[in-house]
Design brief:
By secondary structure, the chain is mainly beta. It contains no helices and eleven strands.
């Protein structure tokens, strides 16, 4: 089994920055795709970003140029650096693990391909 724990959420003003972290434990995960998703109240969970074991990454259009996903395979940690935050970025953010390979025909955006999820961390952007 794999356990994922997010941290780093909080309250930030518009234009501010936050860095989310996701700690993975359990099975060796370096061959997996990791993704970040978010869910705002009353909305469906949506894709934010994904990164492959080799560092290839994809992003939702809404966060391109503002968010950066990264991973540290030695520490079993994943990160989401969020800059220039907007009120519409307010949501619960989840990290997730997939055994599918990112790239080719898959952009990493399908929640159904992720088998492991963290508990989520709240991000609130105030105006």
């Amino acid at each position: 089994q794999v356990q994922l724990v997010e941290s780093g959420g909080g309250l930030v003003q518009v234009g501010g920055s936050l860095r989310l972290s996701c700690a993975a434990s359990g099975r060796t995960f370096s061959i997996y795709t990791m993704g970040w998703f978010r869910q705002a109240p009353g909305k469906e969970r949506e894709f934010v970003a994904a990164i492959s074991w080799s560092g290839f990454s994809t992003y939702a259009d809404s966060v391109k140029g503002r968010f950066t996903i990264s991973r540290d395979n030695v520490k079993n940690m994943y990160y989401l650096q969020m800059n220039s935050l907007k009120p519409e970025d307010t949501a619960v953010y989840y990290c997730a693990l997939s055994t599918y390979n990112l790239g080719g025909s898959w952009s990493g955006s399908s929640p159904s391909r992720y088998g492991y999820w963290g508990q989520g961390t709240q991000v609130t952007v105030s105006s």
